[in-house]
């Protein structure tokens, strides 16, 4: 019986060591680097094709200009500048990316999710109210906090989260994400702005609203 218990503990220990590798968002690199290249092909891959290593240059790993403020003249009052495999090809297979977020006064990065990445946010300037909502199984709990310059906050992978500028001046934050191409799903845009539109009766029942209200939101 003691030997059986020991074997069971050994299996659990092995699973504990290997599961984090098995559930990683992006696969581990199988070479020093794999600079992404947009090669026309009928073959689809999970990521991008690799550039011939002999043709790789230092500029494949470089991007300038992220220190510059971005305009925020839009309905949400924010601007997200992404640095991912699409504009920094050296990130291909490396499992990481970066964004700069500029917020106007009362600007927000509205509720959204990143289906392929955990996000860690650093406030470089200003004051932000941030938060995320847990899954249904956890009771949809809200975790929220007001952040000041120099503060850091983590948004777990796939959970709905947001940031809102509660200061009197513009704000700036930088965030790292655990995917070369994390994706983004803005909740309001996806639900009320899908193409084609979701049947208003479906959304009316889901949100307990009159279908006419839903149609106005979809317009």
Automatic annotation (TrEMBL):
Listed CDD domains: cupin_OxOx
Ligand binding (Mn(2+)): 112, 114, 119, 161
Residue positions binding oxalate: 109, 114, 119
Top-rank taxon, per record: Eukaryota
Tagged with keyword Secreted: yes
Endpoints of the signal sequence: 1-24
GO molecular function: manganese ion binding
Protein name listed in UniProt: Germin-like protein
Keyword list, A-Z: Apoplast, Disulfide bond, Glycoprotein, Manganese, Metal-binding, Secreted, Signal
Cystine crosslinks: 34-50
GO cellular component term of the entry, any: apoplast
Residue span, Cupin type-1 domain: 64-215
Entry-linked SMART domains: Cupin_1
Function comment: May play a role in plant defense. Probably has no oxalate oxidase activity even if the active site is conserved.
Organism whose genome encodes this protein: Brassica napus (Rape)
């Amino acid at each position: 019986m003691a030997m059986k218990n020991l074997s069971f503990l050994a299996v659990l220990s092995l699973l504990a060591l290997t599961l984090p590798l098995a559930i990683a968002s992006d696969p581990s690199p199988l070479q020093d680097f794999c600079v992404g290249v947009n090669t026309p092909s009928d073959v689809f891959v999970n990521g991008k094709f690799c550039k011939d290593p002999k043709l790789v240059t230092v500029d494949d790993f470089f991007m300038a200009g992220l220190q510059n403020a971005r305009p925020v003249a839009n309905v949400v009052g924010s601007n997200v500048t992404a640095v991912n495999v699409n504009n920094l090809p050296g990130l291909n297979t490396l499992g990481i990316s970066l964004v700069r977020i500029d917020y106007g006064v009362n600007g927000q990065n509205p509720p959204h999710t990143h289906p392929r990445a955990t996000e860690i946010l650093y406030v470089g300037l200003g004051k932000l109210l941030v938060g995320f909502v847990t899954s249904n199984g956890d009771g949809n709990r809200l975790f929220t906090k007001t952040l000041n310059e120099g503060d850091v906050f983590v948004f777990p992978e796939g959970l709905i989260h947001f940031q809102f500028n509660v200061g009197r001046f513009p704000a700036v934050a930088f965030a790292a994400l655990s995917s070369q191409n994390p994706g983004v799903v803005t909740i309001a845009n996806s639900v009320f702005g899908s193409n084609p539109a979701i049947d208003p009766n479906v959304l009316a029942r889901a949100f307990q609203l009159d279908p006419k209200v839903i149609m106005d939101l979809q317009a």
